Amino acid sequence: MAAVIGWLALAFVVSFLLGSIPWGVIVSKLAFKKDLRDEGSGNIGTTNAMRTLGKAGGAAVFVLDFGKGIAAGALAAYVFVPAIAGVEVDATTADGQALLTAFGSAGVNPAALAMALAFAGCTLGHIFSPWLKFKGGKGIAVAAACLLFVYGPVGFLVEIAVFAAGIALTRCVSVGSIAAAVVCPLLGLYYYGGQWVPWLIILATACVVVWAHRANIGRLRTGTENKIGSKKK
Fold first, then answer.
1. Rounded to 5 degrees, what are φ and ψ at 135?
2. What does the pLDDT read at residue 95?
3. What is the per-residue DSSP string for 96-141?
4. Dihedral of the alpha carbons of 116, 119, 120, 125, in degrees to the nearest 10
């Protein structure tokens, strides 16, 4: 029981630390001699990087942030899940009986839980980076990348399609981001149906991503949100 809980905790902590790396700040300071937090909207993500650092700077920030999600998802899928699966269960011991009760066929699937925790960890690490006094970006790039492993290629492509459709219909990156966050737990019902603990973790994480866009939502309501191709308001 303790070994499984330890691997689950490690999946979250490692993913959180990966997500917390503030690549937007690092790239802007090292390559452009400026702090992205002092430019444009002050956000450390791809959209603000594109507007203030140019295409090259924005692309670099996106690739590195996306890479954080890929790394978190890959570690969960290829390291933590196999490690959990390799934990021996002795039903004759109290520890083994507790493990079977908590993670048996009628309980929580520890593999699904590890994937959900990795998704939550990298996303929350990006939004609440301890290196930036628990401030950060809005979590879309890193979350979407991790979903490649959490939901698989099809679920990932659905998320990208929703994101792209939101932008195409409104010319607002924030609309695509919020739409993708809203769809995320709905897809979770399909991929993790019956696994309510992992699904609730995914739902809570998606809600935090929407919350991170609260300023954008306010501007959308007043019609002052920045649109692609228009001058920044």
1. -120, 165
2. 65
3. HHHHHHHHSTTS--HHHHHHHHHHHHHHHHHHTBGGGTSB----HH
4. 160
Q: What is the pTM for the complete model shown?
A: 0.91
Q: Is 90 helix (H, G, I), strand (E, B) or coil?
A: coil
CB of 138 closer than 8 Å to CB of 209 = yes
> What pLDDT is stored for residue 203 in this prediction?
97
Q: What is the predicted pLDDT for the residue at 146?
A: 98
Give residue-wise pLDDT tens across range 42-52.
999 999 999 89
Mean pLDDT, all residues of the chain: 91
Instruction: Identify which of 71, 73, 107 has the alpha carbon closest to the alpha carbon of residue 89.
Output: 107
Residue 176: how many other CB atoms lie within 10 Å: 21
Q: Is the dihedral of CA 124, 70, 44, 229 positive or negative?
A: negative
| Closest by Cα among 45, 173, 198, 179 to 121 | 198
Q: E strands of the chain, at which residues?
A: none
pLDDT bin (cut points 50, 70, 90) of residue 233 is very low
User: How far does the chain reach from its first CA to its final CA, in angstroms?
Assistant: 54
225 closest CA partner among 146, 188, 172, 163: 172
Q: What is the C-alpha radius of gyration for the chain, rounded to an integer number of angstroms?
A: 19
Euclidean distance between CA atoms 209 and 176, whole angstroms: 12
> Amino acid identity, residue 81?
V
Tell me the per-residue pLDDT of 46-84, one tens digit each, with 9 for 90 and over: 999 998 999 999 999 999 999 999 999 999 999 999 998
Closest CA relative to residue 18, chosen from 82, 73, 84: 73
